[in-house]
Amino acid sequence: MVLRKELATAGWVRIDVEVAEAGLRFEQWFRQCKTESWHHWSSIETIEETDDEIYFFRRDGIVLAVRKRAFESGESKEQFVELAKGLHAPVPLTPRHARDLWSFSTSQTL
Which of 27, 39, 22 shows the shortest CA–CA distance to 2? Predict the structure, then answer.
């Protein structure tokens, strides 16, 4: 499932959040620059909701937030959360998981 949100700033920012079997993928575009980050399920300790956001708390202290207002409907938000919680299986952190905690790449289009 992919969530897209465009934000009005000095330019525009588009953010896609994908819930996949391997983990969460965040893609951000600002003008012609694209940034992508993968967060494997083994790096996510807990998933929590507030009235306004869905939080993914990573084992290394980083917190990922998805604003609920980005969803087209309450039903699509519920599907997103249900899928994320269904794929998230907390596991003890091992040295093998530690190297997979976070991957990061950037690219620029002309």
Answer: 27
